[in-house]
Amino acid sequence: MNSPFRYAGGKFYARKLIMEHIPPNHLYYIEPFAGGASIFFAKPKVENNWLNDIDSDLANCLIIIRDRPDELIKGLSGEAATKERHGYYKNEFNPRNELEKAIRWFYLNRTSYSGIMNMQNCYWGYGDKYSMRPENWPRNITQSSRKLQGVKITSVDFEQVIREVSDNSFLFIDPPYFNADQDKFYTHAFNKEDHFRLCEVLREDNSRFNFLLTYDDGPEIRELYSWCKTILAKEWNYTINRTDDQKNGTKEKGTRYKGKEVFIMNYECSKKNGVQLDLLDYASTIDLKKV
Ligand SMILES: C[S@@+](CC[C@H](N)C(=O)[O-])C[C@H]1O[C@@H](n2cnc3c(N)ncnc32)[C@H](O)[C@@H]1O
After folding, report:
1. I want to staple 73 with a disulfide (CB 3.0 to 4.6 A). Which of 20, 138, 274, 290 is the partner?
2. Is the confidence at residue 64, as pLDDT, over 90?
3. Considering the entire predicted model, what is its pTM?
């Protein structure tokens, strides 16, 4: 299934490719940088799952979806997706409790350009033809809530999560990019020291668990992770059937894009898989009405 959120920097389009590199047998699945958690929602659920993100409003919205889906649905019922309501939730609505915070977060996430929730860059970006319509939000919340049952959800720094994971866990690690400036997307800055700190923590602790880390490709990242067993450059094509950028109007209907990243693993990816997957050009045309 798909994430309940639209999420900038999310791995929605790469989810099949990423899942092909995840070892099937793990009892603990952890995302220290969950965001929209598109891999968690796409993959089969294992016995123990932990989603973490430093953005406490995002984590709160996931918790409310998990624990109080009916109240969230009720709070959003009758809402129309309009620029006026977007402006109201963004600038005027003052949430008094966790439920109201989640209502605001969900409404803005579903109606903002690319789901960007850094308030300085959170603009109206909804279109009936390409966004999930409000009448479909309840179904999306209900299904997401089912998948989130029993899942641990926290909002702490990644280091605390990695230090605490159980032995034999599998971690999908998707930090902000190393070289591209993604601070405009997220509520917390992630600087070079944080990238180096992540590398150190993983290096120190990684005999206890397996991880797949995704990054923008570049010599610094390859050097930093040269101690890992597998580093694969990956590309995938995708087409967006929408005009998403209402602010600038630059993206035409059906524009083709290329995702390009490096997958870093502290385990061997079998030669057979590696060769096959390297040849794989994961091309997809996705109807964003469903996203
Ligand atoms: C690239 S996004 C993850 C996208 C996600 N994989 C998806 O598919 O939607 C990176 C996330 O890391 C979070 N983040 C930034 N700094 C963090 C930190 N120090 N500890 C934990 N999470 C952090 C951001 O809030 C953001 O949601």
Report:
1. 138
2. yes
3. 0.89
